[in-house]
Amino acid sequence: MTEIIKEEETGKEAGLNFVEQEIVNDLAAGKNGGRLNTRFPPEPNGYLHIGHAKAFIMDFGAAEKFGGTCNLRFDDTNPQKEDTEYVEAIKEDIHWLGFDWGDRLYYASDYFPQLFDLAVRMIKEGKAYVDEQSSEEIARQKGTPTKPGENSPFRDRPVEENLDLFYRMNNGEFEEGSMVLRAKIDMASDNMHFRDPIMYRIIKTPHWRTGDKWKVYPMYDFAHGQSDYFEGVTHSICTLEFVPHRPLYEYFVKELADETYCPRQIEFNRLNLTYTVMSKRKLLQLVKEGLVNGWDDPRMPTLRGLRRRGYTPSSIKEFVNKIGYTKYEALNHIELLEHSVREDLNKTATRVSVIQNPVKLILTNYPEGQTETLYMENNPENPVEGQHGMPFSRELWIEREDFMENPPKKFFRMSPDKEVRLKGAYIIKCTGVKKNDNGEIEEIYATYDPETRSGLPGADRKVKGTLHWVSAPTAVDAEIRDYDRLFAVENPSAEEGDFRDLLNPDSLKIRENAKIEPWLAERINAGDNYQFVRLGYYVVDPDSTPEKPVFNKTIGLKDTWAKEMKK
Ligand code: ATP
Ligand code: MG
Asked: Is 43 a catalytic residue?
């Protein structure tokens, strides 16, 4: 991972990305009988993040695009780290992005019998042996890319002995770590993965699906290609770190495949995002140590985190489409992801009025007890969305930041003796303030000009500032969780030291007494997106109660991406 990609360099207009191009070529050449079958193979040891989304958008997307099928396969070959909790969550998250595997749901553990049989066959053919050395010893003998490895002293064990030991390994006769089954390939190979890779290790933890039936479990490299083969997968699309594994993938697959059908592996670049960590191990650590509030914390790059933050499926797909798929590692700007959700919500989110840091405004010449209803556009981007009514009265809430007693020159919001417009309502002029004993402003006083009601003839008198407001008697209290980036540095994975020291200490600000307009208070459904005018995009949080709506800030209105692109 070296450079930061600024351009939307690979989302070529209507063109195919290089993986799709390979698929099209294979189909045109009639490979595998013209079939296309991809798969998404998550290990159920954590929740899916946006990097996984990049992978499965490719897997399911290519199948959809070219008339193929896509399997969902849980890669559950390590009973020590896996859990059903993750299985259900993974399915839910894939569905959320609009993809479905139909009846093509598989588990690598379904293939344990066939994999075991293949291992036995390879032992019989002299292609595998049981090694009794410690893992340290095996690692030591492995050599380096420039120095060949050494053969294990157990490498030439007779077939019968290997067979006997392998069966006994699986019967639980030996301790974990005491022996492994290795492929007998080439300890001097240029490809380190060919230096007698481990096929099976002993694990005595029961498996969540197969119980204690097995005491030996296949390694990823011995399971993945064969699982693809057993399922009829034609294109096994994965990330670049598997490039050096590909020859081994092909080596094991060749034990099964013939010229009529053979799966192939194609690799693309992982998604890495600025200000984000994507490693499952680190994400788990953040959750376990309470550094975030769970896997669905709106600051997490997990799909459930993004969902709770207010990200939409289409914004995530659009982002992935923009960054594209390449053959070299990169780091993508989080601003582009933010830009994608902002663009999407701009089209769809209903505009409402909310004051997040309220101060009271009293219109001294507005009759006490009078209210009127003013109509606000639901979405100026989409006029068919119509309008909704908002009560207006003598006492209003406005943002504290919108008033300054001694403003600098370019302050066009409210200050003494200056006129501003209340959005969709009247022009007002500040006449004074009341302060408490600490000198803080408690109330602001103003007069309104009844001739200036928005929409009325002659109401278009120009004033510089327009403020949003909420009528005080009918306002409802709400909580706003104002999120910022989880990390304070651009590339936390590249920094030395403990990644937890790089967390942004101000990534969550809670505002307890925001004031929302009554129309919004009647529409509190978790997951609904809104634009709070002048503030940004917000989403209703599932913690909301009828007494206290809770909103998460998705993203502010200001697009830093467009600026970034011009640099
Ligand atoms: P682990 O270290 O646990 O293997 P993983 O992130 O690779 O972590 P898997 O469940 O094995 O998790 O991933 C499933 C698929 O998602 C794999 O094909 C993997 O290549 C892909 N994937 C994982 N992370 C990313 C990422 N950041 N960008 C794109 N694809 C990813
Ligand atoms: Mg993996």
From this structure: yes
